[in-house]
Amino acid sequence: MNLEVHGAKIFFEIPIFGGIPITETIVNTWIVMAVITLICIFLTRDLKVHAESKRQVVAEYLVGMVTDLVKNNMGERFMGYVPYIGALFSLSAFCSLSSLIGLYAPTSDLSTTAAWALMTFVMITYYKIRTNGIGGYLKGYTEPVFVMTPLNIISEIATPVSMAFRHFGNIASGSVVTLLIYGALSTLSAMVLGLLPGALGEVLSHIPIFAVGIPAVLSIYFDLFTSVLQAFIFSMLTMSYIKSACE
Amino acid sequence: MNGITDNGFILGCSAIGAGLAMIAGIGPGIGEGNAVAKALEAIGRQPECKGDVTSTMLLGCAIAESTGIYGLIVALILLFVKPLT
Question: Torsions phi, psi of A214, nearest 5?
């Protein structure tokens, strides 16, 4: 059994600033972005004031869902965040779901999720400074007593780190477990079918028959459920952190 | 210690360390179990607020999961990045 777990492959390097590597992550993210853009264009072609086509009903339903989510979790004041949350959710969900068709899921690369978490961190800091002023923001670190300053700094940094690690860990562990299951099932079928006598066993033992169908059951959890759930959780956390930064 | 190369010894110890790191999975398991049990109780008492309870529970579960995920990251790094060899 030969299992190889690796990060994103590097296709080539752009020779500026000491070489920018173009990895599988970047290429697959662009593919996912193109797919989302095509879906958006398809859904929003020739819209009417009163929905006539099924396409428009679906589009209105999706937009209404994101709007309700933002309104319930952040309030009327933050309605400008609807496009951002919608984009974040759909990009995250589609990136994770791309592992269903055998692509390397961009979210199982820590760089992707770290970038998203960093964006959330910048927004949190921006709103904290805007609400309290720069002095109030810095003073917030010494609450409730001055001795707590190192702990407050750690907890501030822990927010984006834990968000990035949570998303990355869930998706990456899913792909590692799926790989292990495939390896184990093909070894098992080689062992069992190798017991058959003669040339029949010779031939059949090279075909991983048990690996057909059984991993699909796990794939429902690891690919479908986890992908959508992590996308939901990431956008929910973004919303609640930004909202609590304004208080 | 005959016949074991230094590299192999470090790899073996990394694998043991990765296994030990995943003991961190116990805490989130118990915590999430408690959270889901309480959420089910709440839904049983007030079925009309099922949606709110479920989404809040999922969020809480995700946050409770953090420590387990940290353990998983340590295990993955020990197994696949091999920082000690």
Answer: -60, -45
Burial of A154 (0-12, 13-18, 19+ CB in 10 A): exposed
Tell me whether residue B13 is in a domain. Answer: no
Q: Mind listing the pLDDT tens digit for each residue in A130-160?
A: 888 888 888 888 878 888 888 888 888 988 9
pLDDT tens-digit map of A179-208: 888 888 888 888 887 777 777 777 777 777
Report phi then psi at A21, rounded to 5.
-75, 135
Inside any domain, residue B85: no
Number of domains in chain B: 1
Q: What is the CA radius of gyration of chain B?
A: 20
| Residue B62 belongs to a domain | yes
CATH number at residue B56: 1.20.20.10
Q: What is the pLDDT of residue B4?
A: 84
Neighbour-count burial of A93, counting CB atoms closer than 10 A to its CB (0-12 exposed, 13-18 middle, 19+ buried): buried
- Tell whether B84 lies on the interface with A, counting CB pairs under 8 A: no
- Are A166 and B62 an interchain contact pair (Cβ–Cβ within 8 Å)? yes
Interface contact A173-B65, CB threshold 8 A: no
Distance from CA of A5 to the nearest CA of B (A): 7
Q: What is the pLDDT of residues B48-67, one digit of tens each?
A: 988 889 888 888 888 888 88
B42 vs A: CB within 8 A: no
Q: Is A153 exposed, middle or buried (0-12, 13-18, 19+ CB in 10 A)?
A: exposed
Domain range for B71 is 19-80
Residue to test with chain B: of A154, A233, A239, A243, most B Cβ within 10 A: A233
The answer, for B65 touching chain A at a CB cutoff of 8 Å, is yes
Average pLDDT over residues A167-189: 85
Nearest CA in chain A to B79: A5
pLDDT at B40 over 60: yes
**Listed range (A109-118, A163-172, A190-199, B35-44) with the worst mean pLDDT:** A190-199
Inter-chain residue contact B72 with A173, CB threshold 8 Å = yes
